Amino acid sequence: MKKIAFLIFLLAVGVAAGRAQESRQDISLSGIGLIEPFMASSTTVQVHSTTAYGAMLSYRFMLTPTSAIEANYGITYQNSLGYFVNPNHYKVLTRTQEISAAYVRSFVFKNYNPFVEGGAGGFIFLPIRNSGTTSLDVKQQTQIGAIFGAGIAYEVSPSFDIRVEYRGLVTKVPTFGDTQFTTNRWYRPWISSPVIGVAYHF
């Protein structure tokens, strides 16, 4: 009886290992930061911001052992965008959401898997109406743009890895529907977004 139980155990371990090796999907949860560069328009508008922190949920499907498609949803807690419109200064507290899709190319070096990615995204700027927002005319705004990034995944086990990545978000400076905040500029060079998280393969 013990031999049969031992054989069943070995079979279960073998099946689990085989499934792990054949896993073509993963889901990851990451902490993110958004660092928006200072922007000045060709007119009188200047925009500066504080760093935002939040979380991102990602799903990745492997097309081949080294290429995948990825879908992301991210949201930040809040940060402050300051608009200097000579001679006035306005503050807008905002949450930023990202919905994006990308192609991912990875490279395998033992337990280390560097990767690069690029794709398109939508960015939703959600103003928070409280005492920290000094303009009552601001409204939710959605911008279309692009994402790119590079990082490395360290395989902790066949089912889990730790990922560290630098991402760039390319989009226009938001106006929140208020014409006096218009810069007609894209963020340059781009919004920087450091990412660290854990992925589960299945």
Q: What are the SSEs and their pairings?
A:
Elements: H1 2-21, E1 25-34, E2 39-40, E3 45-49, E4 52-64, E5 67-76, E6 79-85, E7 88-106, E8 112-127, E9 141-155, E10 160-170, E11 191-201
Antiparallel strand pairs: 1-4, 1-11, 2-3, 3-6, 4-5, 5-7, 6-7, 7-8, 8-9, 9-10, 10-11
Question: Please, could you describe this protein's structure?
Answer:
With 202 residues, this protein is mainly beta. The chain has one domain: Beta Barrel (Porin), CATH 2.40.160.20. 10% of the residues lie in helices and 59% in strands. It is built from 1 helix and 11 strands, in the order H-E-E-E-E-E-E-E-E-E-E-E. The chain has one helix at 2-21; strands at 25-34, 39-40, 45-49, 52-64, 67-76, 79-85, 88-106, 112-127, 141-155, 160-170, 191-201. An 8-stranded antiparallel β-barrel has the order 1-4-5-7-8-9-10-11. Strand 4 and strand 5 form a beta hairpin. The longest helix has 20 residues, at 2-21. It is elongated, with a radius of gyration of 22 Å. It starts with a helix and ends with a strand. Mean pLDDT is 90; it is low at 1-20.
What is this structure, in a nutshell?
The chain has 202 residues and is mainly beta. It is built from one helix and eleven strands. The chain has one helix spanning 2-21, and strands spanning 25-34, 39-40, 45-49, 52-64, 67-76, 79-85, 88-106, 112-127, 141-155, 160-170, 191-201.
